């Protein structure tokens, strides 16, 4: 589908009007309901987002306004149609994601929004897990291609969630025999010693985000069975010492709170037929003052090692509430204003 574009300009000497472009996007009649959404909910969201006029005439969407705004609106409607033709069901959030990815048009060779959003990792109870930004797509592609992948970025960018989804998918496909989830038991303002129970009971709250992700992708009864049989293992990083992990999908979460020695120990557990994903946020280091982060150290040491991939996720990859993005911006601004001390903490 190629939109017809006609350029309309203001009259000579008329400085009150800017150059305008008109574009016509043809939607096949059979696809209109899915592209526009139930009760035109998707269409209404696009109209709220784009900065040009949107007029629907039959199965034609006529866009008029400044050239860049029209091009972005074209990209959104074309992306919606591509997704529908691929068997997907766009919603209002889909329109928002396509609009964000249309900014700047994308670099040469960069995947279109529909290619990003159509990469479904797995489906559970009708819910599809898929990357929602170009960087998330790079991240999932890197995990599929590399034995060891580092995902570094702020909270809410899907680092852990997408890694868990790919782990479950690999297990379902028989590519691995087990999933191992680990993280350093670093205390963030609370003491493990005051929590009730044995060591596993004490660290259980630290693994709650991983449990939450797994419960969204595996039937609870099956998940419990996997835990009992060791198909899914959740353990503190200290429990990894001395082991060789074969035929496993291993995820190290909150890796910014590892020491360089712990990171080296963890990475050297990699066995045959295994993949590792290491996630972390270097702006949330909870190590004692003066201790270097193993995640920061690994980025410097392993950047050129074949088979190891580093993917950076940014604030615009946050897929939680827009308020989370504003909170991240506020904290980053405060750290910048705090001078060298704030900058030093951020880089740890």
UniProtKB/TrEMBL annotation:
Annotated K Homology domain residues: 19-82
Localization, UniProt: Cytoplasm
Keyword ATP-binding (UniProt): yes
Pfam families: PhoH
Gene3D superfamilies: P-loop containing nucleotide triphosphate hydrolases
Any one GO MF annotation of this record: RNA binding
Residue stretches spanning the membrane: none
Keyword annotations: ATP-binding, Cytoplasm, Nucleotide-binding
One GO term describing the cellular component: cytosol
Domain of life: Bacteria
Major localization class: cytoplasm
Family stated for the protein in its record: Belongs to the PhoH family.
Protein name: PhoH-like protein
Organism: Rubrobacter radiotolerans (Arthrobacter radiotolerans)
Source organism phylogeny: Bacteria, Bacillati, Actinomycetota, Rubrobacteria, Rubrobacterales
């Amino acid at each position: 589908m190629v939109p017809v574009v006609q350029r309309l300009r203001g009259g000579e000497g008329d400085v009150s009007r800017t150059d305008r472009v008109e574009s016509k996007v043809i939607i096949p009649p059979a696809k209109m309901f899915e592209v526009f959404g139930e009760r035109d909910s998707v269409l209404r969201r696009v109209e709220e987002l784009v900065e040009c006029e949107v007029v629907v005439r039959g199965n034609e969407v006529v866009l008029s306004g400044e050239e860049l705004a029209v091009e972005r609106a074209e990209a959104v409607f074309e992306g919606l149609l591509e997704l529908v033709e691929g068997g997907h069901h766009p919603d209002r959030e889909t329109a928002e994601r396509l609009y964000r990815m249309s900014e700047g048009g994308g670099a040469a060779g960069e995947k279109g929004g529909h290619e990003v959003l159509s990469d479904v990792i797995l489906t559970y109870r009708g819910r599809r897990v898929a990357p929602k930004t170009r960087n998330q797509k790079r991240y999932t592609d890197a995990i599929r291609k590399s034995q060891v992948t580092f995902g570094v970025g702020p909270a809410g960018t899907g680092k852990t969630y997408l890694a868990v989804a790919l782990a479950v998918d690999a297990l379902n496909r028989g590519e691995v025999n087990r999933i191992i989830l680990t993280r350093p038991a670093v205390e963030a303002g609370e003491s493990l010693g005051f929590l009730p129970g044995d060591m596993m009971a004490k660290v259980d709250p630290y693994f709650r985000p991983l449990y939450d992700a797994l419960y969204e992708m595996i039937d609870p009864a099956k998940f419990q069975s996997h835990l009992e049989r060791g198909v899914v293992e959740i353990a503190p990083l200290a429990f990894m010492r001395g082991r060789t992990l074969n035929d496993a999908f291993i995820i190290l979460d909150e890796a910014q709170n590892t020491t360089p020695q712990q990171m080296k120990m963890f990475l050297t557990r990699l066995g045959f037929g295994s993949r590792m994903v290491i996630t972390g946020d270097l702006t949330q280091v909870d190590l004692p003052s003066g201790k270097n982060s193993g995640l920061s150290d690994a980025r410097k040491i392993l950047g050129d090692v074949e088979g190891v991939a580093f993917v950076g996720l940014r604030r615009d990859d946050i897929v939680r509430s827009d308020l989370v993005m504003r909170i991240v911006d506020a904290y980053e601004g405060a750290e910048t204003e705090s001078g060298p001390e704030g900058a030093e903490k951020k880089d740890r």
